[in-house]
Amino acid sequence: MKKIVLIAVLTLAAAFGANAQQYKVITSVESIVPNGLGRSRIINALEDKDYREFTSVQTEDDNTRNKSDRDEIRVKNFEETKLLNFYNIGGIRFQNIAANDAMITSMINDMISNGWELAFVVSGVESEGGKGDGQGIFITRYIFRK
Questions:
Q1: Which residues pair with 130 in a beta bridge?
Q2: CA separation for the pair 10, 13 (Å, rounded)
Q3: Which candidate, 63, 39, 50, 55, places its Cα nearest to that of 139?
Q4: Once rounded to an integer, what is the mean pLDDT over residues 118-145?
Q5: Which of 2, 75, 116, 140 could form a disulfide with 123 if both were Cys (CB 3.0 to 4.6 A apart)?
């Protein structure tokens, strides 16, 4: 009977340990600036940050801010993989989009081969805001877990 209880406890402990998950976010930024003037990259932070170190609580009575310097928040160790811009002087370049897809697929396959699972993909766009703006990016966050 003691052996059964011990095995049950160990199995339960192993199950709880298996549920612990780790997440990793990798971001692609693809330029939608006309004439190929923008920069497109895959960004992968190589260091961790604890958000709690840079978090303050705001109340109605106390409006103090966390005194952390922004330089402490910045990640200085990261990978930057070049991608091609969506546009060049001739307009939209479908060949560039296909090349970026190949690069992003390679990155995803590498993460999966290293034990990560692609859990979520979130994207957004900031496009040109009218005549003379000339700004825009397409950003995608790939959220992996293991």
A1: none
A2: 5
A3: 39
A4: 85
A5: 140
* Cα gap 89→36, rounded to integer Å: 6
User: Which residues, at least 6 apart from 25, have a Cβ–Cβ distance to it below 8 Å?
Assistant: 45, 141, 142, 143, 144
What percent of the chain shows pLDDT beyond 90?
A: 44
Whole-model pTM: value is: 0.75
Whether the Cβ atoms of residue 143 and residue 121 lie closer than 8 Å to each other: yes
d(C-alpha 73, C-alpha 14), whole Å? 36
Tens of pLDDT, residue by residue over 4-58, are 765 766 666 665 655 679 999 999 999 887 776 788 999 999 999 899 988 888 8
From CA 71, how far away is CA 116, in angstroms rounded?
Answer: 30
- Residue appearing with tokens 């989009």: 97
Residue with token string 């700004």 = 135
